[in-house]
Write a structure and sequence with these properties.
Layout lengths: L1 H12 L3 H10 L6 H27 L6 H22 L1 H4 L20 H15 L5 E5 L6 H14 L5 E8 L4 H11 L9 H13 L4 E8 L5 H4 L10 E7 L2 H5 L8 E2 L5 H12 L9 H12 L4 H10 L5 H12 L8 H15 L4 H9 L7 E3 H11 L8 H17 L4 E2 L5 E3 L2 H14 L2 E5 L9 H6 L2 E5 L17 E5 L21 E5 L17 E3 L20 E3 L22 E3 L22 H4 L6 E6 L16 E6 L13 E6 L8 H9 L2 E5 L7 H5 L9 E7 L4 E4 L14 E7 L4 E4 L12 E5 L10 H7 L5 E4 L24 E5 L23 E5 L8 E2 H6 L5 E7 L6 E2 L22 E7 L21 E5 L6 E3 L12 E5 L6 E3 L17 E5 L1
Protein name: Disease resistance protein
Keywords: ATP-binding, Coiled coil, Nucleotide-binding, Plant defense
GO molecular function, one term: ADP binding
C-alpha cells in the first residue's frame, strides 16, 4: 500500500497540462525551443520515477490505480508530440544541435559468418507472429548458450520484448531454481515456499507483459511449463520460448518444437581465427615450425568452440616444446598423461554419454570407436553389434538392422553422431571420437590403437578383462603367441599398412568366447585356426588378400554374417563349407568370389555351387555375381531374401549411384522364363538393369505382369528385339511403374515407343529422370497418355542420339506437352527442325522452370529459341550449346512479340542465367542477337565460355556492357574471325563509366 501512495503523490506533484500549454505556446516562438527541451526532460524524469514505483508494485502483485495508468498514457502522448516537433527540420534549424548517435557495438559473441547467419535466422523467427517456440540443438560445447545469450541481448536492443528472462535447466529439472532465476530477471521476489503458489505468482507477473521472451537453456528432458508458471500458447500469445538442448528429440518430441535450428562446429577458417585469438597467435609468422605445430593443434580441436577456447587458453604463451607435447597427447587420447584441457573437453562429451537413455545406445556409441575410418559404415556396425549380441529381444539380422537404424537416429539427434556424404555412412566428430575411446577404455576395458606407432600390447592382467580389441593401421608388431583373453568378445584388425600378417596357431586359443572377428585389409595365408572359434557369429575378411577359404571354416555353425567384400583374389571356396552355415543371414561377396560351379560338378568340383546358398533358409541378405548364367540351376530360388545385390552375366560392374535395398543386373542369353528364381527377384526389385534378354518385346507384361510395383530405377540396354517398354494394347490395364524415379534406355535398335496404349493414372507418376540414347526408331519420347502421368514429377530429361530420319519436321515438344516440374533438359542429336513452338501456348509455360539446358548436335535447327520462348526461361541458370552447323543466331528476333498470353509474362531475357557455354558453332555470328532488351536481362551471368565459333566477330557488344556487370570469367578459344572481346561504339560514350567484376580473361588460339 505504501508503494501505491507514493505513486499517487508523485503524480500529484507533476501534471501534464503545463507542458501541454507550453508546447502550444512554443510552436509560435523559435527562441523558446531550449525551454521546451528542458521541460520535456523534466517530464521524462518524472515519468521514469513513477514507472519504477509502478514496476515495484506490479512485481509484488499489487494492482495499479486507473488514474496512474491514464497519467502515464498522457505523458507518452505529450512526449511523442515533443519528439515530432523537434524532428521537424524547420524547427530543428531554429537552434537544435545536430544529433550524434553515440551507440557503440556491444561486446559479445564473435560475429563469425556461421554464427551470424543462425543468429539472424532466430531473430527473424522471433519477429514472426506465427512462431512462438524456437529450438536450438547441437553438440555439448558447440556454443548454444553463447548464441542464445546474444539473441537475448539483441532482442533487448531491438526492443522486441517488454521483458527477457533466462534460466539454465540442466540434467535435473529443479522447478524452484528455474522460478527463482526467472523472477530475479523480472525484478520480482518470490518468498513463498509452495511451488504451486510461486508458479501462480510468476504466471500473473508474466501475464502483465505484452511481449516476453523466455529462454530455457540446456534441456535434457521435457519440462512442464505450467509447473514453472510460464503462461504459453492461448494463455499468453505474447510469450515466446527459446530453448536449447543437446538432443533434437527433446525439442521435437517432448516439447513440440517444429523445426529446431542445428548449431554445428565452426568452419575451418573461423575455427583458426578463434584459436589464434585464444592462444595469442595473431602475429604468428608463417612458414615456421611453430606455425605448423599450432595449426595442427588447432585442427585437432576440429572446430568445437569449447575445445578451441580451452586448448588455446591453456597453451597461450607456451614454448614450442610444450605445444609439441600437447599435440602428442591430443593424438593419443588414451594416454595416461591426461591433462586438464583434455579433461574439460572429455567431461562435456561424457555428460552426454551418461545421459543416454539405454545401455544399447551407450554400447552402439562406444562401438563406433572400433571403426577403421572416420566415416562409419552402417553395415560394419551391424556386423559388430550382431556378433556381440548387443540388442535385447533381437533374434535375426533383419530385426537387428531395424534396431540399429533406430539407435543411430537417436545418437544423431543427440549430435554424438553426424550425417555423412551418403545415407549408408555416418560420422563422429573428432573430439567426440577421442572422448569415446577414453570412455571405452575405462568402462569396457577396450583396447583401441589407431594410426599409431610403437604401441605395446597391454599387460596380461589387462588382457584377461579386456572385452574388445581394435588395431587399426597400427604398427604394434606381430600377433603374440597364446593370448589369454577369456572375456574378449570383439577382435578387429585392420592391417592395410603391412605386407603380411602371420597368425600364430595358438593366437586364438585363449579367445574361445569371441563373437565378432574382423581381419580386414590383411594378407592372409592360412586361417584354419579361425575354425576353432565355435561361438563366432560374425566373420569379416573385408578387402583382405586371401586365395582360399579353408575347410575348417565350415565348423562355424553359429555364423550369422560372413563378409567377403573386395576379396578380389579369392578363387576357391570348397564345396559344403557354405552349406554348413545353417544360421547364416548375411552373405556379402561384392567384388569377390566368381568361381561358382554348376550343380552337376559339385560332387567332384573344387568350388561351391549355387545350390548351397539356395539351401540356407535363414539367408535374407545376399550380394553375389554370377558371371556365367549357365551354372544357375533351373529351380534357383531364394525364398527369404529381403535385401540383395545380384549380378548375372558378364557385362556388369559393381558401381551404381542408386541406394536401394534390392538390385538386380541381368543379362541372359537363355530364356529367363526357365529360371523361376529370377522371376521372384523381379517381383521386389528396386533397381533393375537389363542387358540383351532374348525373346522379349514388351518389357512390362513379359517380365512382370504386376507392373513392377517396387521398382525405382530401370536401365535397359543393348537389345535388338524390344519394341515397347509398355504395350497395353488389348491387355488388362495395370499400374505400370508407379514409383519409378529414373528410366535409362540405351541402344534399343527396334524400340518404337516407350508406351503404347492406355496407362492408368498412377503409371510413371513418380518418374523424375529419363535418358534415351541411340534408339533410332523411337518416334517420340513421350506418348500423350504418358505425359499426363509425368506432369507432376519429371525433373530431368536427357535424349542423346535420337536420329529418326522420318520425323525431322516434327516438334520435339508439342503444345500439348506439359511438364511443369522439369528442371534439367539435355538434348543430343535430335533431328527435329524445332524443339518447341516459336509462340508457346499457355499450356506449355512449363519451360519457365528449367534451371539447366544442354543441347548439342541438332543439325536441322536454325535457331534455338524464339524471343517469346526465351522470355519464359526465367529460372535458367546453366545454358550449354554445342556442335551446331546451321545456327546463325541463338535467339530468333524476327516477329518478336512479348508473350503476354502466358500465365507469367516476363520481359527480361535469362534474368537468372549464371553460366553460358557455346562451342563448335560454325555459322554463329552473334551471341546476343537482340540489341534492345530490358536492363535485367543476363544480369546474373558470371561465366562466359566460347570455343570454336569461326564466324563470331565480337564477344560483348556495347549494348550488353551494362547488363553484364556481374560477369567474372570470360574464356575464348579458337574463334578465328574474332576482332574484339568488348566493343564500344561512339554512340555509347554518354553512358559514362561501366564497372565490372571481371576476374579472369582467357584467350587461346
Amino acid at each position: 500500500m505504501e508503494v501505491v501512495l507514493a505513486i499517487a503523490g508523485k503524480v500529484g506533484e507533476y501534471t501534464v497540462a503545463p507542458i501541454g500549454r507550453q508546447l502550444g505556446y512554443l510552436f509560435c516562438y523559435r527562441s523558446n525551443l531550449n525551454e521546451l527541451r528542458k521541460k520535456a526532460k523534466m517530464l521524462e524524469e518524472a515519468k521514469e520515477s513513477v514507472q519504477h514505483l509502478v514496476d515495484a508494485a506490479r512485481n509484488n502483485g499489487e494492482e495499479i490505480e486507473r488514474g496512474v495508468l491514464n497519467w502515464l498514457g498522457r505523458v507518452d502522448e505529450t512526449s511523442l508530440q515533443v519528439k515530432n516537433f523537434q524532428g521537424d527540420a524547420r524547427h530543428a534549424r531554429a537552434g537544435s544541435p545536430k544529433w550524434i548517435d553515440t551507440a557503440s557495438t556491444p561486446a559479445g559473441y564473435m560475429a563469425f559468418e556461421s554464427r551470424a547467419k543462425i543468429l539472424n535466422e532466430i531473430m527473424e523467427a522471433l519477429k514472426n507472429p506465427d512462431i512462438n517456440m524456437i529450438g536450438v540443438y547441437g553438440l555439448g560445447g558447440v556454443g548454444k548458450t553463447t548464441l542464445v545469450k546474444d539473441v537475448a541481448r539483441k532482442a533487448q536492443e531491438d526492443k522486441l520484448f517488454d521483458a527477457v528472462a533466462m534460466s539454465v535447466v540442466a540434467q535435473k529439472v529443479e522447478v524452484n531454481k528455474i522460478q527463482k532465476e526467472i523472477a530475479e530477471m523480472l525484478g520480482m521476489k518470490l518468498d513463498e515456499e509452495s511451488e504451486i503458489v510461486r508458479a501462480s505468482r510468476l504466471h500473473d507477473r508474466l501475464k502483465q507483459e505484452k511481449n516476453v521472451l523466455m529462454i530455457l537453456d540446456d534441456l535434457w528432458v521435457g519440462v512442464d511449463l505450467s509447473k514453472i508458471g510460464i503462461p504459453f500458447g492461448i494463455k499468453h500469445k505474447g510469450c515466446k520460448l527459446l530453448l536449447t538442448s543437446r538432443d533434437q528429440e527433446v525439442l521435437t518430441n517432448k516439447i513440440d518444437v517444429k523445426k529446431p535450428f542445428f548449431l554445428g562446429v565452426l568452419p575451418e577458417e573461423e575455427a583458426w581465427e578463434l584459436f589464434k585469438q585464444m592462444a595469442g597467435l595473431e602475429n604468428l609468422k608463417e612458414n615456421s615450425e611453430f606455425m605448423s605445430t599450432t595449426t595442427e593443434v588447432a585442427k585437432k580441436c576440429a572446430g568445437l568452440p569449447i575445445a578451441i577456447v580451452t586448448v588455446g587458453r591453456a597453451l597461450r604463451n607456451k614454448s614450442l616444446s610444450e605445444w609439441r607435447d600437447a599435440l602428442l597427447q591430443m593424438k593419443r587420447p588414451t594416454s595416461r598423461n591426461s591433462n586438464r584441457m583434455q579433461e574439460v573437453v572429455d567431461s562435456s562429451i561424457k555428460l552426454s554419454f551418461d545421459n543416454l537413455e539405454s545401455e544399447e545406445l551407450k554400447n552402439i556409441f562406444l562401438l563406433c570407436t572400433m571403426q577403421m575410418d572416420y566415416d562409419i559404415f552402417f553395415t560394419d556396425l551391424l556386423k559388430y553389434s550382431v556378433g556381440l549380441g548387443l540388442f535385447t529381444g533381437i533374434y535375426t539380422i533383419k530385426e537387428a538392422r531395424d534396431r540399429l537404424n533406430t539407435l543411430i537416429s537417436k545418437l544423431k539427434a543427440t549430435c554424438l553422431l553426424l550425417d555423412s556424404y551418403s545415407s549408408d555412412f555416418f560420422t563422429m566428430h573428432d573430439v567426440v571420437r577421442d572422448a569415446a575411446i577414453s570412455i571405452a577404455s575405462n568402462l569396457q576395458h577396450a583396447f583401441v590403437v589407431r594410426y599409431e606407432k610403437g604401441n605395446e600390447w597391454p599387460e596380461k592382467e589387462q588382457l584377461r578383462i579386456c572385452t574388445a580389441i581394435s588395431l587399426i593401421k597400427s604398427d604394434i608388431g606381430g600377433l603374440p603367441e597364446g593370448m589369454d583373453c577369456p572375456s574378449l568378445k570383439f577382435f578387429h584388425l585392420d592391417n592395410k599398412e603391412s605386407n603380411s600378417f602371420p597368425t600364430p596357431d595358438s593366437f586364438f586359443q585363449g579367445m574361445r568366447g569371441l563373437k565378432t572377428l574382423c581381419l580386414d585389409q590383411c594378407v592372409l595365408e592360412d586361417i584354419t585356426v579361425v575354425g576353432e572359434l565355435k561361438n563366432l557369429k560374425a566373420l569379416s575378411l573385408l578387402s583382405s588378400d586371401i586365395k582360399q577359404l579353408p575347410h575348417a571354416i565350415g565348423q562355424l555353425t553359429q555364423l550369422q554374417l560372413l563378409d567377403l567384400q573386395n576379396c578380389s583374389k579369392l578363387e576357391i571356396i570348397p564345396p559344403d563349407i557354405i552349406l554348413n552355415f545353417k544360421m547364416l543371414e548375411v552373405l556379402d561377396m561384392e567384388n569377390s568370389f566368381l568361381g561358382w560351379e554348376g550343380e552337376e560338378a559339385n560332387s567332384k568340383g573344387i568350388n561351391v555351387s549355387l545350390m548351397e546358398p539356395k539351401n540356407l533358409h535363414e539367408l535374407n541378405t545376399l550380394v553375389i555375381w554370377i558371371r556365367d548364367p549357365s551354372v544357375m540351376p533351373g529351380d534357383l530360388l531364394f525364398k527369404n531374401l529381403k535385401r540383395y545385390k545380384i549380378l548375372i552375366g558378364d557385362v556388369w560392374n559393381w558401381s551404381g549411384k542408386c541406394k536401394t535395398s534390392t538390385t538386380l543386373k541381368l543379362k541372359l542369353n537363355i530364356s529367363f522364363h526357365l529360371v523361376q528364381g529370377v522371376k521372384r527377384l523381379l517381383e521386389i526389385v528396386e533397381d533393375l538393369h537389363l542387358d540383351e534378354l532374348s525373346s522379349v518385346k514388351n518389357v512390362l507384361y513379359e517380365l512382370n505382369g504386376e507392373g513392377f510395383q517396387f521398382l525405382k530405377h530401370l536401365l535397359i540396354q543393348n537389345n535388338v528385339e524390344i519394341e515397347y517398354i509398355v504395350n497395353s494394347m488389348n491387355l488388362e490395364l495395370i499400374h505400370a511403374f508407379p514409383i519409378l524415379e529414373s528410366l535409362v534406355i540405351h541402344n534399343l535398335i527396334k524400340l518404337e515407343r516407350i508406351c503404347i496404349g492406355q496407362l492408368s493414372v498412377k503409371s510413371f507418376s513418380k518418374l523424375q529422370e529419363i535418358e534415351v540414347k541411340n534408339c533410332h526408331k523411337l518416334k517420340n519420347v513421350f506418348a500423350f497418355s504418358m505425359v499426363k502421368s509425368l506432369s507432376r514429377s519429371l525433373l530431368k530429361i536427357e535424349t542423346p542420339y535420337m536420329k529418326n530420319e522420318n520425323d525431322a519436321r516434327m516438334l520435339l515438344f508439342s503444345e500439348k506437352v506439359e511438364l511443369p516440374k522439369i528442371e534439367t533438359l539435355k538434348l543430343s542429336s535430335i533431328n527435329s527442325h524445332k524443339i518447341w513452338q516459336d509462340q508457346p501456348s499457355a499450356a506449355s509455360y512449363w519451360v519457365q522452370n528449367l534451371t539447366s539446358f544442354i543441347v548439342e548436335d541438332c543439325r536441322n535447327l536454325k535457331h534455338l529459341f524464339s524471343y517469346s520462348v526465351a522470355e519464359t526461361l526465367v529460372k535458367l541458370k546453366h545454358l550449354e550449346i554445342c556442335y551446331f552447323h546451321m545456327i546463325e543466331e541463338i535467339i530468333l528476333t524476327e516477329g518478336r512479340i512479348s508473350n503476354s498470353t502466358l500465365p507469367h509474362s516476363h520481359e527480361a531475357l535469362f534474368p537468372n542465367l549464371e553460366a553460358l557455354v557455346i562451342s563448335y558453332m560454325d555459322n554463329l555470328k552473334t551471341i546476343w542477337s537482340v540489341d534492345h532488351v530490358s536492363p535485367n536481362s543476363f544480369g546474373k551471368l558470371k561465366s562466359l565460355n566460347i570455343n570454336y565459333c569461326k564466324k563470331l566477330l565480337s564477344i560483348v557488344p556495347s549494348y550488353m556492357l551494362r547488363k553484364l556487370q556481374n560477369l567474372e570469367t570470360i574464356k575464348v578459344g579458337n574463334c578465328g574471325s574474332l576482332n574484339e572481346i568488348v566493343r564500344i561504339d561512339g554512340g555509347d560514350e554518354d553512358h559514362g563509366e561501366v564497372h565490372t567484376r571481371l576476374k579472369i580473361l582467357s584467350l587461346d588460339g
